[in-house]
Amino acid sequence: MASRLTSMATVLVTGGAGYVGSHTCVALLQAGHEVAVVDSLANSSAGAIDAVAGITGCRPRFDAVDCRDEVALEKIIAEVRPDAVFHFAGLKSVPESVKDPLRYYRHNLESAAVLLSVMNRAGAHRIVFSSSATVYGVPDELPVAETASLRPCNPYGWTKLMVERMITDMVEADPRWSAALLRYFNPVGAHPSGLIGEDPGGVPGNLMPYLLQVAVGRRPALPLYGTDYPTPDGTARRDYIHVMDLADGHLAALGNLESSAGQAMICNLGTGRAVSVLEVIEAMEKVSGHSLPHEVCDRRPGDVPELWADPAQAFRDLGWSANRTLADMCRDAWTWQSSHPWGYRRLPPTIPTTGAGVLP
Ligand code: NAD
Ligand code: WQD
Predict the structure, then answer these.
(1) What structural domains and CATH numbers belong to the chain?
(2) Of 42, 145, 311, 316, most Cβ neighbours within 10 A?
(3) DSSP-assigned states of every residue in 83-101
(4) pLDDT tens profile 184-212
(5) For the chain, how far is it from start to end, CA to CA, in angstroms?
(6) What pLDDT, in 10s, does the model give residues 151-162?
(7) How far is the centre of ligand 1, averaged over its atoms, from the C-alpha of 207 (Å)?
(8) Which helix (H) or strand (E) holds 186?
(9) What is the pTM of this model?
């Protein structure tokens, strides 16, 4: 008989209104699990929860609560009685973390510490944590395996490593705990329905959302950071992974938690393929049918020339591998952005367009 975690589990999803969280909610609900979301909406919109309900036909319980609110979280966990918790909630901007490190340490560490305390008291001992390939910093070898040296280059990356440590220590202290620490590479794309997707506030810091805003006319051109890297076309290479492949990786991790009591497993979630910035632009031009202007700029400080995953361990331990292509990632991201040029806001803000006809 299938275990409860592979058949029908109740999963509490922190940060479930956010980009990766909302896509993972869809995957969980479509696999027959029950979902309860806790999200402060600090970087997301309740519209994402409506869209998750629209795609799946199931509306998850939703509490607009900050994970650091111990009293509220305690009540929610007592009511939901989760079989597992997926912890996506947190702040994620590298440059913001460099500018205001204390805010990042306080927010991300306190969110995790409060969550783990509440889980411990409630007897909920299974957690999947959103870590990041940023914990590797500049790797000595490529592709990068889980055994590589860990030396984050920014406070955000340190918070990820510290929370990994916090969770590992909980597991070591009490074998009823089990954990999956998932190191994502570069999540992009959207659910193929185009009803949910990435919706950053302000100027996007990441390549794909910036490029999409160029494609819908919200921005005139992509700043292309560096064409003098020691790579085949001179632009930096990354391991872009479709967000639905990432969501499936979480489902695989959930299935593994029941049989891995006393363990904190660490897995890279990437495709194992290196893709350059120019290749992303070209793939997006193809699916959108638009030529996408870009302006060559200096390298962005702190960027590594190349980073891609050795995904073998995820396949070995979770039976998971990514199978969607770069064309799939671009097509699905474009379906989302072209149908939601302003993200979850239906109408553009009432700021006038610039003279060039470019939207703000
Ligand atoms: P996101 O900002 O879209 O989602 C995070 C969600 O958490 C948001 O909805 C936000 O409102 C919520 N949130 C933040 N702090 C909270 C708190 N204290 N309590 C409750 N809710 C809170 O980010 P995302 O891209 O979906 O990333 C999800 C997780 O994956 C993050 O932990 C991020 O660090 C990690 N990650 C993301 C990437 C990426 O490139 N997107 C890569 C590696 C790791
Ligand atoms: C990809 C490539 C840029 C924007 C970041 C975080 C990492 C993880 C994923 C959370 C680089 C280039 C980008 C632009 C560009 N997040 N680029 N013009 O830097 O690999 O990783 O997101 O954990 O921690 O650091 O992703 O999408 O920002 O950049 O040329 O406007 O695109 O220089 O080569 P990155 P990215």
Answers:
(1) 10-339 (3.40.50.720)
(2) 311
(3) SEEEE--S---HHHHHH-H
(4) 999 999 999 999 999 999 999 999 999 99
(5) 55
(6) 999 999 999 999
(7) 17
(8) strand 186-188
(9) 0.96
